[in-house]
Write a structure and sequence with these properties.
- The complex is a heterodimer of chains A (913) and B (110).
- Chain A is of the alpha+beta class.
- Chain A has 25 helices and 21 strands.
- In chain A, strand 17 and strand 18 form a beta hairpin.
- Chain A is globular and about 110 Å long.
- Chain B has one domain: Winged helix-like DNA-binding domain superfamily/Winged helix DNA-binding domain (Arc Repressor Mutant, subunit A).
- In chain B, strands 1-3-2 form a 3-stranded antiparallel beta sheet.
- The chains are: A alpha+beta (913), B alpha+beta (110).
- At the A-B interface, helix 2 and helix 4 of A face helix 2, helix 3, strand 2 and strand 3 of B.
Chain lengths: 913, 110
């Protein structure tokens, strides 16, 4: 007997699925009739019938075949339908009955239902909101084909302590042709660009990529087409692709934009495609989303020709791994490649720098930074939901005393324990489903306002939306929460003995109440402990935030306004007005002269764009250098970030000069090259020796004399420890990405208008952008920290309130239970104060147990916060002590009202009841 | 089609009784019942299949295609646990009601 394929019978039976996988088919029935007739015929022949007679007799005995066949088929069909219907109907029937009963019960106790629903909306809503972010940012794969195979590649120089030092064009070629792990690799170069053609020149975010960029991402244009590997050319391709945002902003969403000629950095290009609205470059940018993608081979003007291995112009690369390769396998092969290349080109890769290639999943690379913050918020939200559940469980338990009679009666007339438990669970799940639905609706209504609260530096923000995964999550959380808080009451309902329950089930006293007291006490302890954990978390974040704000930024932010100026870089050197260093230096000088007369500006400086503190989304490129007076080495085994500033830069910022001097207008191309370093540089590279007077040698062999040391400016953020930094004079190291820093009396709008006009007078082709106050920049740099602090505090506050309510409820219950005792004591002459103490003691004991438990739990859990705290230990005694005191104080207040009620018990009433 | 409820119940009971010995195909069941009842339960063979399918539907039996000893494809029926329980209940009910009927008949006869 061969078994049917499909789900095993045991499993089917376990889940009460139909044992037969499909209904009896006509084939089955025909087969069976046929078999029967043949068997019967043979049997009759064996009994002496002639073959013809046997066939006729077999058919006669079977009955009229066609009619029988039709009958069998009909009844198979009927049975099939009725069997499934019958089962389904029976279940639906019970469920509907339970639901109707649950709805009536909930409607009857409106107060409890309202409180439960409100807290549920808070708990589930918080979880939904955070999950919405977590889902979009961390969980959802990047919106590309086979996103798990997309990776980023970076160069590191661990020997110099430098990460992400950029990629050179020959290295990109090696990745494509020698690494053997990629289907394709595209170099990336992020830049500003000047887009001409509108009312005024606009600065846009420009991304130079290899021609295979869109093919390796598997991305298609919404209108027109993208460029492709087939069009490869050493310089920039003529056809560029623009973003949906730029299409709307600059071209009025006009579909005939395809084929339009535009000027980008004074070079002519043709728009060949518009990307769909959801398309984002899966990597870091300078500021905001990419507006223009342009394909290039990186090996003709404006790039150095022939490409040099040591010139790392590219910001890195994005690649698609070959199918079946893991990240680790790819990394191992790249390690091998790096060793090979170092052996082949020893001059380009000094061994002490230990040049290496690092591969990272594109998603991690993009969103890894926010993981700790989001994880923290998610845990906090889950805690609040747990506390909400505990609170509602406690409320339901309190009501179950009142319902003891009801359950006892139902049991006495034949309801099973399981049925009663299911009834209670149906009630609680119904309750939390309503809460979950309400939370979802609330979230939907407040969506835009909530999204506005999220700090803009969280990646993939545009993908956050209230979609089906979120609704599914809401459903799961609601059902889970309903079961969680319904479980204890359900078990209690199931455990009620019919007769005892009827006897006890009036008001107070008895085994039922003792059981309830225990259960509710446990719940309160859990609630308080969870609140403590949340409060400790919030406290640590608060202390960190305060510490961050207290940090000396190394500048005076008030009255400081900065803006950026992009100097276009045309592809053809002849077209470039600012090609040479002296041309660029002259521009800087002209800008300084022109801007000096700006109204309301007292002091002004220009600098390379990286020198605007708190403005950069990405960490600055680390440049290797050596200190020639160090006996041990002449290799570039140190690394620091470099920037160029004008004479008054430190003066404008209000940064203290610690040693030596800063730049003057005389530090130009004709003078000896000098640099100023920060204190972090001095601490790291010249701890025993005054750095002033020492020389720095860059990898290109230029020697620079250190003439001064300045205070650390926390450029990368108040909570980032200062890294070694080298400042050059902008007249000696001119650049095309310029920043203007102004000490002003005017507001930012006026300053922007004045600055734009003044720069236009120098050159109409230079776009001015990103004009902001230093206060804005600083505030934005702590936005993520402020966001998580605000949310966790809100969660912790709600938790505290819920815990207080829970404690109050239990306390009231305990006092009510003992009112007889208190009445007698009062009658016998006990002072009210003693009664109050007596009444409050059990609840306060519970609170203390909860607080201690919570503190221990916090000590264990707060270690996870180490990535998020700043300048505070994760076991900060002050925070822990404050939270403990706070909770005990709140607990005391929560006990006060019921305790006072205890002293007002009328002895006579108490005795009568 | 069996023409009375009594008969239908009887046929089901007989099928269960026969199948308790082990899986059989439709013809084997027919033969076994014919043997035991000396042909006295004379219904059309197709009625038996109708009963088999109905009992299968109610999960008193389960059926699977298999191969007969003459190497033919045949559907084999087997009693489920529910079928066994039904057989026990029904046999008792039958025994007691038969006793009652016999007693009444006995009284009438006397």
């Amino acid at each position: 007997v061969t078994p049917e394929p499909g789900i095993r019978r045991g499993i089917r039976r376990f889940f009460r699925l139909a044992i037969r996988s499909a209904s009896l088919t006509a084939n089955d029935i025909d087969g069976e009739i046929d078999f029967h007739l043949r068997e019967r015929r043979e049997h009759l022949i064996a009994r002496g019938y002639s073959p013809e007679d046997a066939g006729a007799e077999a058919r006669r005995r079977f009955g009229e075949i066609d009619a029988a066949r039709a009958r069998l088929l009909r009844s198979a069909l009927r049975h099939d339908a009725s069997a499934t219907l019958w089962d389904w109907e029976r279940h639906m029937d019970t469920l509907m009955q339970d639901l109707r009963y649950a709805a009536r019960t909930l409607a009857r106790s409106r107060g409890l239902t309202a409180v439960a629903l409100l807290t549920l909306i808070l708990g589930i809503g918080g979880n939904l909101a955070i999950f919405g972010i977590v889902n979009a940012v961390l969980l959802q794969p990047l919106p590309f084909a086979r996103p798990e195979r997309l990776v980023r590649v970076f160069d590191d120089l661990p020997g110099a302590g430098a990460k992400n030092v950029g990629l050179s064009v020959p290295e990109l070629v090696d990745l494509n042709e020698r690494a053997g792990v990629f289907e394709g690799v595209s170099g990336l170069i992020s830049a500003s660009a000047a887009l001409a053609g509108g009312e005024r020149v606009e600065r846009v975010e420009f991304l130079g990529t290899s021609p295979n960029y869109f093919e390796l991402l598997g991305a298609k244009a919404a209108i027109g087409r993208t460029y492709g590997q087939a069009e490869w050319s050493p310089g920039f391709l003529d056809g560029v692709v623009i973003s949906d945002a730029l299409w709307h902003r600059q071209f009025g969403a006009d579909p005939s934009v395809i084929g339009r000629r535009i000027r980008v950095d004074e070079d002519p290009y043709t728009i060949i495609g518009v990307m769909p609205p959801g398309f984002r470059h899966p990597g870091q940018t300078l500021s905001g989303d990419v507006d223009i993608w342009s394909g290039t081979g990186f090996s003709a003007d404006p790039f150095p020709t022939p490409p040099a291995r040591g010139v790392r112009l590219l910001g890195g690369a994005i690649g698609r791994l070959k199918p079946g390769l893991t990240l680790q396998q790819a990394q191992r092969r790249l390690d091998v490649l790096a060793v090979d290349l170092q052996r082949t080109y020893p001059n380009d890769y000094p061994s002490r720098l230990r040049w290496s290639l690092r591969v990272e999943s594109a998603q991690t690379s993009l969103t890894g930074g926010v993981r700790p913050t989001l994880a923290l918020l998610f845990i906090a939200a889950i805690f609040v939901l747990l506390i909400v559940c505990v609170n509602i469980a406690s409320l339901l338990l309190a009501r179950s005393t009142v319902r003891t009679r009801e359950f006892a009666v139902r049991k006495a007339i034949g309801a099973s324990s399981a049925r009663l438990a299911r009834q209670v669970l149906t009630e609680s799940v119904l309750l939390s489903l309503i809460g979950g639905a309400a939370a979802t609706v609330m979230l939907r209504v407040t969506q835009t306002r909530l999204l506005a609260l999220i700090p803009p530096d969280i990646p993939r923000m545009n993908e956050i939306q209230l979609d089906w995964p979120l609704v599914a999550f809401s459903l799961v959380v609601s059902i889970g929460a309903g079961i969680l808080f319904g479980l204890t009451p359900a078990l209690r309902a199931a455990g009620i003995a019919p007769v005892r329950g009827l006897q006890v089930g009036g008001r107070t006293g008895g085994a039922q109440s003792i059981g309830q007291r225990r259960a509710r006490s446990t719940l309160v302890v859990i609630q308080i402990a969870l609140s403590v954990v949340l409060l400790v978390g919030a406290g640590l974040l608060l202390r960190s935030f305060a510490a961050v704000l207290r940090t000396d930024p190394g500048l005076d932010p008030d009255g400081l306004i900065d803006g950026q100026v992009w100097v276009p870089v045309p592809n053809h050197p002849e077209a470039n007005k600012y090609l040479t260093a002296s041309q660029q230096a002259a521009l800087a000088k002209r800008l300084l002269d022109q801007l000096e007369s700006l109204p309301g500006v007292t002091r002004l400086a220009v600098a390379s764009s990286g020198e605007v503190p708190f403005s950069s989304a990405t960490s600055p490129l680390q440049i290797p250098f050596s200190l020639p007076d160090e006996a041990a080495t002449h290799e570039n085994d140190h690394a620091a970030s470099f920037g160029a500033v004008s004479a008054h830069y430190f003066d404008v910022l209000g940064t203290t000069v610690k040693r030596g001097r800063v730049f003057t207008e005389q530090d130009d191309a004709r003078a000896p090259y000098v640099v100023v370093v920060n204190e972090a540089f001095a601490r790291r590279f010249s701890p025993r020796q005054d750095p002033v007077g020492r020389r720095v040698q860059t990898s290109r062999g230029i020697e620079l004399e250190i003439v001064g040391v300045v205070e650390d400016i926390r450029t990368a953020g108040l909570d980032a420890s200062p890294e070694p930094h080298v400042y050059g004079s902008i007249l000696q190291f001119p650049t095309v990405a310029l920043a203007v820093l102004m000490r002003t009396h005017t507001d930012v709008k006026t300053a922007e208008v004045a600055l734009t006009r003044a720069v236009a007078e120098v050159d109409r082709e230079l776009p001015v952008f990103g004009v902001r106050t230093m206060r804005e920049l600083m505030s934005a740099s702590v936005a993520r920290r402020r966001f998580s602090l605000a949310l966790v505090s809100a969660f912790a506050g709600s938790a505290l309130l819920l815990a207080a309510i829970g404690l109050y409820g239990v306390m009231s219950f305990l006092v009510g239970q003992r009112s007889q005792e208190f009445g007698i004591r009062l009658a016998l002459g006990a002072p009210p104060r003693a009664i109050a103490g007596l009444a409050a003691r059990p609840a306060l004991t519970l609170a203390l147990v909860g607080v201690l438990l919570g503190l221990v739990l916090s000590l264990i859990m707060s270690r996870w916060l180490s990535a998020l705290v700043f300048d505070v230990s994760t076991s900060d005694p002050l925070t822990f002590a404050s939270v403990g005191v706070l909770l005990v104080a709140v607990a005391t207040v929560a006990c006060l009202v019921p305790a006072r009620r205890a002293t007002r018990v009328s002895p006579l009433d108490a005795l009568r009841s | 089609m069996p023409d009375s409820i009594l008969l239908r119940g009887t046929l089901d009971l007989l099928i269960l009784k026969v199948l308790i010995l082990g899986p059989m195909n439709g013809f084997e069941i027919t033969r076994a019942i014919e043997d035991r009842s000396d042909g006295s339960l004379d219904v059309e063979d197709s009625a038996l299949y109708q009963a088999l399918h109905r009992m299968e539907e109610r999960q008193l039996l389960e059926a699977e295609w298999g191969v007969s000893d003459k190497n033919r494809r045949a559907r084999y029926y087997r009693v489920t646990r529910a079928g066994r329980a039904r057989l026990r209940e029904e046999s008792q009910r039958w025994a007691s009601s038969a006793k009652t009927v016999l007693r009444i008949l006995g009284e009438v006869a006397r």
